[in-house]
Amino acid sequence: MKRYVFVLILTAGFAATAQTANYSSSLELSGGIAQDGFAASAGYNYYLNRYNYIQGAVYLSFGNIKQDGFEIPYNNFTLNVGYFIRIYNSLDRKFSAAIGLGPVIGLEVVNNGNNELEGGAIVDNSSEFLYGGFAGAELDLYLSESFSLLGKVNQYYHPSSDLGEFALYAGVGLRYILF
Length: 179
Hints:
Layout: H1 2-20, E1 25-34, E2 37-47, E3 52-67, E4 70-89, E5 95-110, E6 128-142, E7 147-157, E8 166-177
Antiparallel strand pairs: 1-2, 1-8, 2-3, 3-4, 4-5, 5-6, 6-7, 7-8
């Protein structure tokens, strides 16, 4: 009898663990506007529970900054890892909102790595390592059980950037819920 009780408790424990670990993961892709240009973001969300998730994303921005009569192209390539908390979920589960923040690391490439502009002017800035953080907000409008329309706004802080410490990204995209 004790053996059956032990097996029953063990089975119930495994079932409970499997239920708590059975939260979804999702992939997302968005595009939008960035500081002086456009950008794209692709990410993976790992849900810790129904309301909180960890997001890993790659962010790419392409822009031109105007300085002293010259237009200088630059690109940012960063990896963002953030913790997001769902702050609103509609009763019919068709709409949700989340906020989050986390660290950022990456690379800033100025003038495609060249130190000289077409007119012969010398660029003081060079490609450099970026670090910092971000704060973001996301809105989901669920189209089905597997897809949602995504609205995303991130404010980046790069203290190591020569082009400006703050950069804004606002975009729309699609999120695919894996399971």
